[in-house]
Amino acid sequence: MITGIIVIALLVIVVMWFISTQRELVKLEELCKNALSQIEVQLNSRWDALLNLTGAAREMASRECDTIIKTIEARRPSGVKTAADVNASQSGFAEVMSRLMVVTESYPEIKSHPLYQSLMNDINGYEDKVRMSRMVYNDSATKLNRYVRQLPSSIIASMLHFEVMEYIKIDDEKKRDAPNLFPNQNPPTGMSSVASR
What we know:
By secondary structure, the protein is an all-alpha fold. The chain has helices spanning 2-57, 62-75, 83-106, 108-112, 114-149, 153-159, 172-177, 191-195.
């Protein structure tokens, strides 16, 4: 009789633990998906602002800007479902933005136009939001990945096919190519953390 009660109590504990772990895994996975969705919204807004910026510059450099607009339409992601999609969008955006900057260097009057300056501020604002959303996603992915990889929750994660989430990374090659503004000293406090986002 006592053995039966102990077995039933252990079974109840195991079932409750299983349910609790499954619920936590679902919650963490949903947080990651939500963070990716937020990134997608910000990336789309940023691509829209870049398209508007190129359209504003088109008045003075129509041929060059027409080419950039075609590139934007080709490079703009149709959906962001994974960290790899975010990384690809970031790379494409940086490439198109650098092409636009070459055009604006050739036509200085574009830079002085108030609409251009306003749209550049919009792009910078969206970039800040993307950066914050990336941080939220990576934090959420870290929490989920711990659950998926650590015992005993990894047993449930494996049974229910939860997988480790990929992190969103910055392009190390482009980071290495960035000029060092502090060649003889370490960057001021806070600068290194900003550069690593």
